[in-house]
Specification:
Membrane topology: Multi-pass membrane protein
Number of helices: 6
Family: Belongs to the TonB-dependent receptor family.
Strand content: over 45%
InterPro entries: Beta-barrel_TonB, Beta-barrel_TonB_sf, CarboxyPept-like_regulatory, Plug_dom, TonB-dep_rcpt-like
Number of strands: 53
Pfam family, one: CarbopepD_reg_2
Oligomer: single chain
Radius of gyration: 30 Å
Helix content: under 10%
Keywords: Cell outer membrane, Ion transport, Iron, Iron transport, Membrane, Receptor, Signal, TonB box, Transmembrane, Transmembrane beta strand, Transport
Length: 847
């Protein structure tokens, strides 16, 4: 009996010791010079369990049997490391801490594999989620201040164009009948609508901005670049972040993200973002400010890991915007070549009207038509990653929608010229991408994939004249124009529909001829089909049978109907040669043949003798030849200095033309014979010391029409005897010769409410030179160059409470983001104003 008890006690002791031992995690903490780090603090995230490393850098910490968990490894002067532990069956951990302000080698996934950005033979800029948060870059419009090669122009979410190197979207009002030249991807899902770029980012991990044609790596062909955005994924370790910001003009922004395990193989993450702000422009007619912010977004993700080789993520998101806004302010009046009585100043004098201010930067309007810019965007996606052989097979299936509900005052005055101007739109898309990326042989790796998108877009628009339309439309001295109620309530109803289908096979190889010399050929075959129907009918106004009065009404609006059906196929490709001369110098050269698919006009066509010019219904595809040479260097420790030289030639460039006819609601598309854009880009980052970092980027861009003989007339030449102008040799719209950003941060270790972290002062600046804001250069539509300065001061911690005081446009610079003529080209033109000085405070708490 005694022997049995003794054996039982011995067994229990062994089991107890084994269990206790199994609950411990051991490890060694070293510096990046492999020197043992003494007194490093090791904490189990979300608990009070902690220990410190000894003189040899070794530590042991009791997990108390709770898995999964995250270890936080901290030491003053070093960046905190987070290590996720999912199993206790692991050898001793080897943990390396990086010195504060040491330049971290950023990794990217744009080539469908994880690799260091300095090793990638593509011109690419990377903004981490933390960097975006710290600089206040909560949407793409703010990102352009960090990546000067990016341009974004938006008079409202629908009329948004995003360009890289001054190419991508036609400058001006958006036409649904063409594809964007800059791809926008979130977690591998292609967003077809440029309005997506106006939405707030939700829980972003990283933003990769690729410059130049991207057809052999991404599903949708793009001629000038791509945004590859990844969000933070669900984690089996519980965690949460909460952030709130408050600023002047009642700015309020709240963000939250919670993640954790829902089962042994299922984890979830839910993220929220909301932004509100009062208007920045005073409407003296209504007595309240306009151009407010009112955005809400939510994103949910479920991660399922059926095995170690397979990850499945189901994601859904929806974002709504309900601003009172996107109003534009009259910025000036250009004299046209029309008769004196048709000039804007003469027109408003006859109507006994005065603008509320002759200075746009008084920020006063008196618009009588309410501004509304409501949009809803969302979707659902399923992404499956599974490792097969030496690579990964990825399948991404997605459905998305976009609803647009606008109201605009396109005459930009308090007169009832246009009583209504609204084109509500609903767009839906289905996309499917399947690709395999991996190591094929010891010297050959690559990616191959197929892509399909089917999208439909339907617009049911209304444009209606008010009681002042007769005077703005008056084109003769006949007294018949003064006929009471002739034009009041006279307008057009528009039904415009597009169905666009695209399918592609694409791939790129990476052939390692030697360890340092690589050749990378890429190929793409595309099929595109677009079916469009446009029908416009007139209604309202004075009902009568007088042919003379009917003729006057038809000078303003006419019925118009046309259909177009077109498709085309295209082979495109690229080849890159990359040579890593040393571990610190990586050079490459690229030639790419790319294209933008055929376009269709669905916003009305200009007329000739009262009939639509049907040959403009279909727009030729762009043909692109692109050359690029780049070198990526690390000239000394903790430094990056990269240079890129590029030249892009485009045949049949798709451009947007603002017509003088009111009935051409959004301008129309046309082809410029040839366009060339060339330039130089610089990217640099330097860690001066453990306290100071500096980063900068600059670009020189020379973009011009090489040949464009049938361009629209500039605003001041409206009314000339000719209808078109040869603008060959002139500058492309939206292209600044120079643009750049420069920033830095000064920091030191500190404690705040018991949390170890650092106190910091950061300054960021952005500048660009003047640019044309019209498809045909007009001396009145030149946006002058400007420079902006932003700053932030605060305390930042990995865990616990962080606080940041921030200010944007600290010098309160008055500047335009865009200039555009009013409908009908009567001479007045409006400006999209940049924000004045804003400031506030941000509090963040991380668990």
């Amino acid at each position: 009996m005694k022997n049995s008890i003794k054996k039982t006690l011995t067994l229990l002791s062994v089991l107890t010791f084994s269990i206790s031992f199994a609950q411990n995690i051991e490890g060694v903490v070293t510096t990046n010079q492999n020197i043992p780090l003494e007194a490093a603090n090791i904490v189990i995230k979300g608990t009070t369990s902690n220990t410190i490393s000894d003189s040899s850098g070794k530590f042991i910490i009791d997990t108390k049997g709770k898995l999964p968990l995250t270890l936080l490894v901290q030491n003053v002067g070093y960046k905190t490391a987070e290590i996720e532990i999912t199993s206790l069956a692991i050898p001793s951990l080897q943990i390396t801490l990086i010195e504060e302000n040491a330049l971290v080698e950023v990794v990217v996934s744009s080539r469908r594999r994880i690799e260091k950005v300095q090793d990638v033979p593509i011109a690419i800029s990377v903004i981490t989620g933390k960097q975006a948060e710290q600089t206040g870059a909560f949407n793409v419009n703010r990102i352009k201040e960090l990546v000067p090669s990016v341009q974004l122009y938006s008079s409202n979410p629908r009329n948004t164009g995003i360009n890289i190197r001054s190419l991508g979207s036609p400058f001006g009002l958006t036409n649904d009948g063409i594809d964007p030249g800059v791809g926008f991807y979130v977690d591998g899902v292609y967003y077809a609508r440029p309005a997506a770029t106006t939405l707030d980012f939700i829980d972003i991990e990283q933003i990769e901005v690729l410059r130049g044609p991207q057809g052999s790596l991404f599903g949708k062909n793009t001629t000038s670049g791509a945004f590859n955005i990844t969000t933070r994924k669900p984690s089996f370790t519980s965690g949460a972040d909460f952030e709130v910001s408050y600023g002047n003009y009642a700015f309020l922004q709240a963000k939250a993200s919670v993640t954790g395990a829902l089962g042994k193989k299922i984890a979830g993450r839910i993220s929220f973002s909301g932004t509100q702000r009062d208007g920045l422009i005073d409407n003296v007619a209504t007595g309240r400010p306009t151009n407010s912010l009112n955005n809400q977004g939510i994103r949910g993700q479920l991660l399922y890991t059926p095995s170690e080789r397979t990850n499945i993520i189901l994601a859904a998101d929806i974002t709504t915007q309900r601003p009172d806004g996107y109003a534009q302010v009259v910025a000036g009046v250009a004299p046209t070549q029309r008769a004196p009585y048709r000039q804007f100043d003469a027109i408003i004098a006859d109507l006994n009207y005065q603008l509320p201010s002759l200075n746009a930067f008084d920020r006063k309007i008196d618009h009588d038509t309410p501004w509304r810019s409501g949009q809803d965007m969302g979707g659902i996606s399923l992404n499956v990653d599974t490792k097969i052989g030496n690579g990964t097979l990825t399948a991404t299936t997605a459905w998305r929608f976009w609803n647009w509900d606008p109201s605009n005052d396109r005459d930009f005055t308090g007169l009832q010229v246009l009583a209504k101007s609204q084109n509500p739109t609903r767009q839906t898309q289905i996309t499917q991408e399947v690709r395999y990326a991996g190591q094929l042989t010891s010297k050959l790796s690559g990616v191959v994939g197929v892509f399909f998108i089917d999208q439909t877009s339907q617009t049911d628009g209304t444009e209606e004249s008010g009681n002042a339309q007769w005077r703005f439309a008056q084109s003769t001295t006949s007294n018949l124009w003064k006929t009471p109620n002739l034009f009041e309530g006279y307008g057009i109803k528009t039904d415009a529909r597009i169905r666009a289908t695209s399918a592609a096979v694409f791939g790129q190889l990476d052939w390692a001829i030697t360890e340092r010399l690589h050749v990378l050929p890429g190929l793409r075959h595309n099929f595109d089909k677009k079916d469009a129907d446009y029908n416009r009918t007139t209604y309202g106004g004075l009902q009568m049978s007088d042919p003379a009065l009917i003729a006057l009404k038809k000078l303003v609006y006419t019925d118009q109907s046309f259909s177009s059906n077109t498709d085309n196929t295209d082979f495109s490709g690229n080849i890159t040669v990359s040579f890593k001369a040393t571990d610190k110098i990586n050079a490459y050269a690229t030639f790419a043949k790319s294209y933008k698919p055929v376009g269709v006009n669905v916003a009305g066509l200009p007329t000739l003798a009262g009939q639509p010019i049907l040959e403009l219904a279909v727009i030729k595809p762009e043909e692109v030849n692109h050359y690029e040479i780049g070198v990526k260097t690390s000239p000394f420790k903790n430094s990056i200095f990269n240079l890129t030289f590029f030249n892009t030639d485009i045949k049949d460039f798709q451009t947007n033309v603002q017509a003088a006819e009111l009935g051409v609601n959004r301008g129309y598309l046309a082809n410029a014979d040839k366009v060339q854009v060339k330039g130089v880009e610089l990217d640099a980052s330097f860690v001066i010391s453990k306290h100071l970092t500096i980063n900068g980027a600059a670009t020189y861009t020379d973009g011009k029409y090489v040949k464009f003989t049938n361009a629209p007339l500039p605003l001041e030449e409206t009314g000339a005897a000719v209808s078109f102008k040869d603008v060959s040799g002139t500058t492309l719209p939206g292209a600044s010769k120079w643009a750049g950003s420069l920033g830095g941060e000064l920091s030191d270790k500190a404690k705040f409410f018991g949390n170890a972290g650092k106190i910091f002062l950061g300054i960021d600046s952005y500048a660009r030179s003047e640019f044309s804001s019209s498809p045909s250069a007009s001396k009145y539509l030149i946006v002058q160059g400007y420079a902006l300065f932003n700053a932030r001061l605060g305390f930042r911690a990995t865990d616990g409470l962080s606080v940041q005081f921030w200010g944007r446009n600290l010098l309160d610079k008055d500047y335009y983001e865009q200039l555009l003529p009013a409908g009908g080209n009567s001479g007045q033109y409006a400006g999209v104003l940049g924000d004045q000085r804003t400031y506030g405070v941000t509090l963040k708490y991380s668990l």
